[in-house]
Amino acid sequence: MTDLTQLPAWRTLATHRDRLRDTQLRELFAAEAQRGEKYTLDAAGWYLDYSKQRIDAAVVQTLLQLADECGLRARIDAMWHGDKINITEKRAVLHVALRARKAQRIEVDGADVVPGVHAVLARMAAFATRVRAGEWTGHTGKRIRHVVNIGIGGSDLGPVMAYEALRAYTQRDLDFRFVSNVDGTDFFEATRDLDPGETLFIVASKTFTTQETMANARAARAWLLASLQDESAIAKHFVAVSTNAAEVAKFGIDTANMFGFWDWVGGRYSMDSAIGLSTMLAIGPEQFQAMLDGFHAMDEHFCSTPFAQNLPVLMALIGIWNVNFLGAHTQAVLPYVQYLKRFPAYLQQLTMESNGKSVTLDGARVGYDTSAIWWGEPGTNGQHSFYQLVHQGTRLIPCDFIGVCDPLGPLHDQHDLLMANLFAQSEALAFGKTADQVRAEGTPEWLVPHRVFDGNRPSSTLLAPRLTPHALGALVALYEHLTFVQGVVWNIDSFDQWGVELGKQLAQRTYAEIIAGSEPALAHDSSTNALIRRYRATRAR
Ligand code: F6P
User: Residue 207 Cα, ligand 1 centroid: separation in angstroms?
Assistant: First the structure.
């Protein structure tokens, strides 16, 4: 592809940035009376208001032109056709097949992958139904009461997020825990009050070689056997979710108790594959299907809607505008839905492991910024912590507010209060408070500068009627596709993650040095050598 910064649309966007440099959101709203209705979209149950972004019709038009010049349509088609668009790992990228309808046909290397997806879903459903009904019992005949998912990254963040998001739909007599960190206290605290006879472990790992997960899985096996004293108990208390049957068998889990997926599912795009087994156990097969339907609805929208009305495409392009033309370094995600408390953490892996890259598909160094730093916390909690900086700090921080109209809990008045806060925050960020307004409140002159809000801080708001499994699926698919679109424009491989490898390799070498019986000869830099020596000398064994 031609250098992105040389594309006509990119150059025009730079002129729009200069044109709008001194234009405030206040003025944009004054100039377009219907702005709050005009810059909105509805898709798959979600309503997007992007009117408080620092854009006008010409900017949107040019962003859409940029998508065309980057060949977005062809890249979307390539994804759906099973082309190996993860070029560095030579893999297809087909998370959309995980929620395809039975009648759909999606091919990888000439073979339709949809029947395999539905076969695994059927096995998951049969298993989940037995556990939820108390028919799958532990080694001593007790009913399973606790499910512990062991996994990390995509094998943890999606399942945790979905469990927290859909708690209202869970079978409350089943208790779910998630162990990810190699820090042994994670496993210890998650299991210290559990009865092994009532506990089911899901070892979730695409590769089944991940250091943290395997260490925790070994700890789980030892913990279980210390109590049940019988190797055959493993079969009743361990299931695996993986693409690697050989390693699963080597670990000692019967592959009859393994739920598979495929190398065309990236770890951070896998929460709706068998990696979502804990989700299905928690909410049941029907609600899991409703979640898949939500994913599918957003997939259909993304794949078939013209870009001008396409929710993931527009949000992605606005993100590009904010990062590459307005100079934003971060993107905040602020759910005003307590159940979505883990959504920002989930999004961090999705967006930053995907688009935290600095070479193009051809291996050339990029000449522009790529992924924003994604972060966030639920509102209103964040308002009492970091919002000060978002309102009055020196940095531009675009925000995605996420809210729902009907609460799932019983305290409806509090929901109105919650949503009032959401709307108030986006209004305050956009329009601020001028010095004259501050003076008119009787503020002494010396205090005026401190109480002024500049405004002109961009945000979008996403609203759904309520947080259902369908709404969650659609929301996740929205951000999956947004991530892909941004990667296409930046011309990077959004589906590999080489940047996590070096640390893994060095940790292996360092671990051997740390546990060595006699003082090892260290050949790191002087800082790392000294840290290892101090640790060895101080560590009480
Ligand atoms: O370290 C990064 C990573 O490879 C992620 O991409 C992945 O989600 C995570 O590790 C866990 O991998 P696995 O599911 O193979 O254990």
Answer: 8
